[in-house]
Amino acid sequence: MPLLNTSLFAQLTGQTDTHIVSGATDCPVHKALVEPWRLLAERAAAQGIQMRVASGFRSFSRQLMLWNAKANGARPVLNDRSEEIDVATVDDETLLFAILRWSALPGASRHHWGCDVDVYDAAAVPDDYALRLVPEEYLPGGPFQHLSCWLDESGLMHDGFFRPYAADRGGVAPELWHLSYRPLADEFASAMNQAQLQSLIENTDIALKGAILDNFHSIYSKFVVLPC
To answer: Would the pTM of this model clear 0.90, i.e. be above it?
Structure first.
């Protein structure tokens, strides 16, 4: 695959926010997402759902901070049952893949693109609710079950949205809160370049770098290149 130009690679990997607008939604997002999101939120509101964005654009530096905090034990690392792992008891490779189940490698997060958002229903919880973004919140019995069911049934494809992590394919764990706007996401996904991403990691002060580089091909195929 040919190398990307500097500007596109910077957008792809969250190293610039030139494609991002703030103030139009709850969180910064891609400027071309604003109107499609407004229309989707209006349809949700007609069903009594106050759909809000918990996370939109995330910069490379922010993703790197989150990654390093998890690798160093400053933020929780969860297993598939949403239970916290004691990072001091596992080796680097085990810790690496545990983090990747819930957190993207810096430079490879779909949130860098600004066209992917994490959503919740503000009408379903009190104002002081501590949002966790774990499956239990969106499954039967959880506060956002109604939102999740509506997303399943609402014909997201009609609006251009889809759930990239709706099913467990052995890479990223299911994230029922994660929506992606396909017209933009397809463009970014097709521009991903393994060699450039690996070079970025090689030149970044990132925790678990040795384990990342030793397993880079597997990481790229399982956690970066996803069906769209």
So the answer is: yes
Please say whether the beta carbons of 185 and 113 come within 8 A: yes
Quote the Cα angle for 136-142-143, to 5°: 130
Contact 193, 13 (CB under 8 A): no
pLDDT in tens, 108-131: 999 999 999 999 999 999 999 999
Are residues 2 and 192 in contact, defined by beta-carbon separation less than 8 angstroms? no
Q: CA dist 73 to 12, 85, 172, Å?
A: 28, 9, 20
The token pair that represents 124 in the structure block = 């379903």
pLDDT given at position 225 = 80
Place of tokens 């397993």: 215
Put residue 23 in one of left, alpha, beta given phi > 0 → left and psi -120 to 50 → alpha: left
What's the mean pLDDT in 67-79?
95
